[in-house]
Amino acid sequence: RPLATLTGVSDWSRVRLHVVTGKGGTGKSTVASALALALAHKGKNVLLCEVEGRQGIARMFDVDPLPYEERRLTTGLPDATGGRGVVHALHIDAESALLEYLSMYYRLGRAGRALDRFGVIEFATTIAPGVRDVLLSGKVYEAVERNSRNKGAIRYDAVVLDAPPTGRITNFLNVGGEVGGLAKVGPIKTQSDTMMKLFQSPRTAVHLVTLLEEMPVQETTDGIAGLERAKLPVGGVVVNMVRPRDLSDEDLAAARAGTLDRERVESDVKAAGIEVTPALLEGLLHEAAQHAERRALEDDQRQVVAGLGVPTYELPRMTGGVDLGALYELAGLLREQGMA
Asked: For the chain, what is the radius of gyration of the CA atoms?
């Protein structure tokens, strides 16, 4: 399907926090990385964050494992004038985030590290998942809302979060609701309420990554419904790993119906210098029928995605794998479709 026919035109210029989620295996980390590259143009600073402990950013960009510290990663996609911004990266873990929180708000520098040695930090972030999510998302919030308190810290034009999977994204961002049962008052409750003002505002967009397969599309549909119930702003849907459309609609229909011109197929194979046997010809026609069937299923899922009523973008399957060059290529496609 030509990219020009997609519904990707939308104005994300007000968005400071781009949250990227998706069912496992859909390539959400790839999409988050490509989006960060696409946003880092015209001298803009972009922070790419991850919170799942997988060191996916480091593997994606082929760099050493990231510490709990913002690191310059690479330059962004150049704009029409050749101007590039800078992409920084941050690997966020709950334990380090809690130590920073204790140091920043309670001045517990050395005492906080002592708590860590006694296992209190691990206990606090394991026994109360809602608190853990507040700590993880709280660091993201701090990067978006930097002020004079953070002397010398980089001010970012956009923050891209490689977020937890779709099935957990609403609970992860709905920190007010998650903490409500744990803390009715106090600094954690106050912080979660403040964070919710950002997460529910037009300055945040939650983008969902899917494949043209029934389960990922259904999870995307359910994810959008959950976000809307929590009053969290839905961004766009990125259909990832789309295969090229090599056959015409007429040939696909004939392949499904088993009415492909056998003589024409045999002639084309011979013209390629390949010896044609009956078994080879039958195998090719069977493969064509299966390919056409998969295409029909993909088209059905594409119609489901189109009916979700949100901006939609498509990225191709990268046959050579995803390296830095492929990420820049994907970033360019996101830019062309209006996502950055």
From this structure: 24
Backbone region of residue 282 per phi and psi (left: phi > 0; alpha: psi in -120 to 50; beta: other values): alpha
Q: Find how far residue 330's CA is from the centre of its chain.
A: 12
Distance, first Cα to last Cα, the chain: 21
Structure tokens at 123: 């206990």
How far, in Å, CA of 165 to CA of 110, rounded?
35
Nearest to 251 by CA among 282, 292, 281: 292
Model pLDDT, residue 122: 54
Provide the token pair at 159: 């923050």
Instruction: Count CB atoms within 10 A of the CB of residue 315.
Output: 23
Cα–Cα distance for residue pair 72/61, rounded to 1 Å: 12
CA 61, CA 327: separation in Å to the nearest integer? Answer: 9
Residue 130 confidence (pLDDT) above 80: no
What lies within 8 Å, CB to CB, of 82 at 6+ separation is: none
pLDDT digits (tens, 9 = 90+) for 272-298: 999 989 999 999 999 999 999 999 999
* Least confident interval from 37-51, 71-85, 230-244: 71-85
| Those residues with Cβ within 8 angstroms of residue 305's Cβ, 6 or more apart along the chain or in another chain | 210, 212, 217, 220, 237, 239, 312
